[in-house]
Amino acid sequence: MIARVCEAAERLALTPTILTFAPHPRQYFAHLNRRPELSPPQITGLRDKLTALACAGVNRVVLARFNRAMAEMSASDFVTEWLAIDLNVRWLLVGEDFKFGRQRTGDIHSLKELGHQCGIEVHTMRDVTDDQGRRISSSEVRGALAEGNMSRAASLLGRPYGMTGHIIHGKKLGRTLNMPTMNMRVTPRCAARSGIYAVRAHGLGSSPLPGVASLGVRPTVENDGRILLETHLFDLNVDAYGKLVRVELLQHLRDEEKFPDLPTLTAAMHADAQHARAYFALHGL
């Protein structure tokens, strides 16, 4: 889809642009209706989203705030005022099921009609499917991540699922257990299943590094509910504090657990590391 946008932009001497909303419209309405549990889990943070779009050839991203004014905008105003005038859109590509405007009253037919009136060339794109004919969508990706099915998530995304962030200081508990970790804050409502993963890290050398990581709230040692990604790299002692690192989650090894004491936690951590090493021995880096 992005390739089609970039091709059209080059042909028409326009700027390839992606429009996205923050927060997600479903998240806005979930909080408006006091049903936060209906907010969709977040697949990727803004940094990773912008990086991926830039790598795909996008030159501009419009990050539009989805608020009351946006939710109540009529379908006509959305196209004739916001898209045509405010954003100066001249060529537009959307999915065939695209809906817009207050209460989602606008559809592809009205979009093309309104676009024609104000000089926007509207194009649609059919669903993209996998090799079994199943629709590739954000819902499918969220489902795979919730199950911990990382091979399915990678197939849907076209790349391994991962997250990028700056390494922050923690309590140094891993060092006392002979398993030092890199700590990274995770986007709220992360779509990935909490638990232990075989991972590889990018950004600390010329090649990716293997390791094991814990994604979750660390119930054995914390009770603040904050989600962290803690990554232990194998056979390597590196000063990563403050560095921007990307960690790819390759295989879900087990769910997060609360252990009765530190010795039990330590034994589980070393067993997790052995399972992750076995994964790399079989699959390579």
List its traits.
285 residues, alpha+beta, Rossmann fold, Elongation Factor Tu (Ef-tu), domain 3, 2 domains, 6-stranded antiparallel beta barrel, two-stranded parallel sheet, 10 helices, 35% helix, elongated
Explain what you see.
α5 crosses α6 and α7 runs antiparallel to α8. This protein is of the alpha+beta class. It folds into 2 domains: 2-125, Rossmann fold; 161-283, Riboflavin kinase-like (Elongation Factor Tu (Ef-tu), domain 3). The protein has 10 helices and 10 strands. The longest helix has 22 residues, at 262-283. It has a 6-stranded antiparallel beta barrel.
Distance between the termini: 30 Å
Treating each run of at least 4 consecutive H or I residues as one helix, how many helices? 10
Alpha-beta classification: alpha+beta
Counting DSSP E segments of at least 2 residues, the number of strands comes to 10
Determine the mean pLDDT.
92
SSE run: HEHHEHHEHEHHEHEEEEEH
Query: Would you tell me which CATH topology of the largest domain applies?
Result: Rossmann fold
Strand content: 15-25%
CATH class of the largest domain: Alpha Beta
Instruction: Say which CATH homologous superfamily of the largest domain is assigned.
Output: HUPs
Major sheet summary line:
6 strands, antiparallel, barrel
Number of domains: 2
The side-by-side strand order for the widest beta sheet comes to: 5-6-9-8-7-10
Q: Name the shape in a single word.
A: elongated
CATH architecture of the largest domain: 3-Layer(aba) Sandwich
Low-confidence stretches: none
Give the % helix.
25-40%
